[in-house]
Every structure is written in C-alpha cells, then in structure tokens.
Description:
Keywords: ATP-binding, Cell membrane, Kinase, Membrane, Nucleotide-binding, Phosphoprotein, Transferase, Transmembrane, Transmembrane helix, Two-component regulatory system. By secondary structure, the chain is α+β, with helices and mostly antiparallel strands. The chain has helices at residues 2-45, 48-53, 57-66, 91-96, 132-135, 139-183, 197-230, 232-241, 247-271, 283-300, 320-337, 369-372, 386-395, and strands at 74-77, 83-85, 102-106, 109-117, 123-131, 281-282, 305-308, 315-316, 344-351, 354-361, 400-405, 411-418.
Amino acid sequence: MRRSLALVAVAVTAMVALAFLIPLAVAVKEIAESRALADAERQAATIVPALVVTDDAAALERALASTPAGTSRLAVHLPGGRTVGRSRVTAADVASAAESARTVPVSKGYVLLRPVALGGGRRAVIEAYAPEADARKGVSTSWAVLTGVAVTLVVGSVVVADRLGARVVRAARRLGQAAAALGAGDLTVRIVPDGPPELVAAGRAFNAMADQVAGLLAAERELAADLSHRLRTPLTALRLNLGGTGPEAEQRRLAIDRLEQAVDEIIEAARRPSRAVPAGCDAALVLRERLAFWSALAEDQARPWQLVGADEPSPVPVAAADLGAVVDALLGNVFRHTPQGTAFRVTLHRGSGMVGILVADAGPGIPDPEKALRRGNSGAGSTGLGLDIARRLAESTGGGVRVEPSALGGTGVNLWLHTDGRAVGPRRRLLRRTRVRGSRH
C-alpha cells in the first residue's frame, strides 16, 4: 500500500510540475532570445547617428569598427546595393526590411534588420547579428533550476505520501494482527485505535466485537460447568440407591465412576483458560485403558475383540481425556449399532509424522459414510455427535477421519492424527467428554 501511495504521489506531482514547468521553460527561452535581440537593436542604434551625417562607406566602416560589436556583428546596407561590414543575409531579406524592421533567423543565430531614412527619400538598412550563444545564455541554468524544483516537489510529495501510507499501513497491520490473534484463541487481545478515521472506527468495532466474543464464550463455559455440576446430584443418588453385589453391581458402580469422572473433566475443561493447550498423551496407553474398560461389556455380549499395535508408546499432540472420549464414542457406536456377538478390532498405526487409529467391526456397515460425518445429519436413532467429535479432534492436529468398509466386513473408522505440528488451526478442546455409548455417528 505504501508503494502504491508513493507511485500515485509521483504521478500526480509529476503531472502538476510538468504543467507548470514546461510553459516556464518555454518562457525562459523566449526571454533569453528577446534579450539577445534587444542587445542587437541597441548595437544597431549606435550606427544611426553616423548614417544621418554621412553615407560614405569609409566613414561608416570606421564608425562600425568603433562600436563594441565591431564589423563582425554589424553591417550597413546603403542605397545602390553597397554593403559596409560583414553581411549574413540575402539581398531579398534586405529589400523586405526596407519599410519595417524584421528579424531573420540565420545559421547559428539571428539577424535584426532595421531600416534608416536618409536624405532624398533614400533608405539604408542596418544589420545587427545576435549569436545563438547570446540567445541561449542562462537558459540551461534556468532549466536546471526548474528541474531541481520539480525533483524536489516530487521527492517531497513521495516522502509525505510515504509517511501517510506508513500510518495507514501500521494501523491496518495492527488490526490484522489483532484479528489473527483473536482467531487463534487469544480473547484478551485489544488494540489502540489509530490511523485515519475509518481505521479508528474499525479498531473500536474490533474491540467491541472482542469484548462480546469473550463475554459469550465465558458465559458458555460457565453454563457448561453449571449444567455439568448439576449432574452430580442425580449421580450421587444413583450411587446411594445402587445395591447388591456381584459382577453386574460392580459394573454399574464402575460405570457411575466413569460418568462422574467425565462430569469432572467437563467442569475442568469449562474452567480452563480459553488459550490453554492440552498436553499430549500416549495413544497406545489410552487404547489399552479404554479397551480394558469395554472388555467387560464385550465379554457379556460374547463379542470377540482385538487390540493390535498398542504395545509401543505412540505420543500424539492431544489430551488423554480428549482421545479417550473419541475412542469411547467409536466403540460405543460398535456396541450400539451392531448385534451382540459381532467381532471388532482396534488397530494402532504409526507412520512418519502421523498416528492412525482404526476401529473396525464385522457388523452391517454404514449405508452413507459421507453423511455420517456431517454433524446432526446421521439419521434416526443417532445424535450425530460421535464421528463429529472424532473429526474435530483429528482436524485440530491437521489430520482427519475417513469411514470405509472394513476387512472384517462391516464399518472401518480411520482416525489420523498428525504429530509433526501440521495443525491447520488452533487446537480445540472437546467439551463433550461423556462416554457416549449410543452415538454411532
């Protein structure tokens, strides 16, 4: 922008300067020529008294020699065609000047022809030569001064335009940087409005928008924390009402423990500062823990299952709670949407800058995998959040989710997490931490 303003200043100032300086340059040249011709006329006037007294050629030659111009610049054309001094014009030029003075351009200068009336009705013509050097004397200096003035005007306009442009660009850059910081999750960023009135108004509008966004997000976090906190009362009642012994009672107690832990994680996430970035975790460890939790239900439903590739550490740039919520959502899809006894397999892949988790089952499959990835459009009997949670977690690292037929004959959900810092945007924490068993999509 500064460059554009500088170019505009150069163009405008140059046009204005040329509009004034070209006529001035022509006027300077004409003034110099007029000055040279006026000097030649003064020289010619010095011969007039001698012509009034005598028209003798010898006397006139002595008179010409006594003038400052001498015979090299002055000449007298007498009646009868006689010429005293050096002439540079033709006889036709002399004849045409017999009635009135005229200027004749010649090689390397100008000649002033002035008629003088003699006695007896005769006329003589005085010839005064003005060299071209005299006609251009001082013109080059004047043109150089005018050029310097033009250059000074252009440079000055460029400096002024650059300063104004720098002010505008600085204010616009600050506004852009603040907008980028706000988009990256820094809700505390504000700017001091500066620059032209339009940018000042834009800066004030940005600050008002940032205040409103921060207020809305704070209210949303408080609402999530409050709603989650309200779940503790019915959970406590469920725990108190839960009685009996045996494997089934123990499983119910474990489920309530997991639900209470999920509620605590939601409250903690809601209270977490908006720019806090969760630490990474070991994907293999998370998979082993979650499969150990789901193994009891799989045994009750006679589901064969496998965990492949989780024997070595696999660090990923997401929080363990986030990854655990995604794994629970994907496994919950398997248990809800496939018949009892359907086998499933969880595979952990490690690649260059990437970790993949494949959850495959031998169920009936998903008729429309593309629709299943669209939030809220998954069909009847589904909230449409499970795969959306997985997709958002993967995209927070620059990865993605793909749904396709599995080798077991059913559905395969591929979750890819980048580990080389290729995230396409600020990492987003998953606020929905509950272990959804009834969300296939």
